[in-house]
């Protein structure tokens, strides 16, 4: 369904991953435009942030391209292709070959996807103490996530309560750390860990999109899901 490219707008954030096995790098850039059935055109990545990556961007370099469409529900899209041309004038641009197909996943409110991302949970406990625990995100949706953190010493029942505000520092795979503010909505005390259901606070749409596009979209998994749905 390559028509998804027509929904992109100029200047939209695009993630590009170098797909060759010896160069597992990725970068963010901006969508410039497209020539239907021929090329997707994006800016060359910022030299200040991605100086080393730019050296590998040559013709025939295989890439995976990911982007989020802000339509009714929001969609995460991804496709495999390769660099066709690197243009220097009037500005440095990458011409990426038009893909044969685009895999996509609708982000529906309340629908959750497995994540398993390392994270740190920090906040003020019920007793008023500032606490911080290592853990990991189990799954994530557009509105929140479910996570576990290590079992602390002391009285577990008084650690968090419904409405406690916490900060999540999530380690994204090859994409740096991401900080999200959240509110505790569910608490489950387990034998070894504490499990929390949390709601993301408002005005964090870009961070939530980054969480999906930078950490959760796996082109191979999307392909398998697409095949099984047929």
UniProtKB/TrEMBL annotation:
Domain (Type III secretion system flagellar brake protein YcgR PilZN): residue spans on this chain: 10-99
Boundaries of every PilZ domain copy: 110-211
Keywords: Bacterial flagellum, c-di-GMP, Cell projection, Cilium, Flagellum, Nucleotide-binding
Domain of life from the UniProt record: Bacteria
GO molecular function: cyclic-di-GMP binding
InterPro entries recorded: PilZ_domain, Split_barrel_FMN-bd, T3SS_YcgR_PilZN
Name of protein: Flagellar brake protein
Species of provenance: Idiomarina abyssalis
């Amino acid at each position: 369904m390559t028509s998804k490219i027509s929904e992109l707008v100029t200047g939209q954030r695009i993630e590009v991953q170098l797909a060759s096995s010896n160069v597992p790098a990725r970068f963010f850039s901006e969508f410039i435009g497209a020539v239907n059935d021929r090329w997707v055109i994006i800016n060359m990545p910022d030299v200040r942030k991605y100086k080393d990556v730019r050296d590998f961007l040559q013709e025939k370099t295989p890439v995976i391209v990911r982007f989020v469409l802000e339509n009714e529900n929001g969609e995460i899209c991804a496709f495999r292709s390769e660099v066709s041309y690197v243009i220097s004038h009037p500005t440095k641009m990458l011409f990426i070959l038009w893909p044969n197909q685009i895999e996509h996943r609708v982000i529906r409110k309340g629908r959750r996807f497995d994540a398993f991302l390392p994270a740190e949970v920090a906040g003020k406990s019920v007793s008023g103490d500032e606490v911080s625990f290592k853990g990991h995100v189990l799954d994530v949706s557009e509105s929140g996530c479910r996570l576990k953190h290590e079992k602390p010493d002391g009285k577990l029942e008084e650690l968090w309560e419904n409405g406690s505000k916490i900060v999540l520092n999530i380690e994204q795979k090859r994409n740096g750390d991401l900080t999200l503010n959240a509110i505790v909505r569910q608490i489950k005390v387990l034998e070894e860990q504490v499990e929390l259901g949390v709601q993301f606070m408002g005005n964090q749409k870009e961070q939530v999109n980054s969480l999906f596009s930078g950490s959760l979209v796996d082109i191979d998994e999307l392909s398998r899901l697409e095949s099984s749905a047929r």
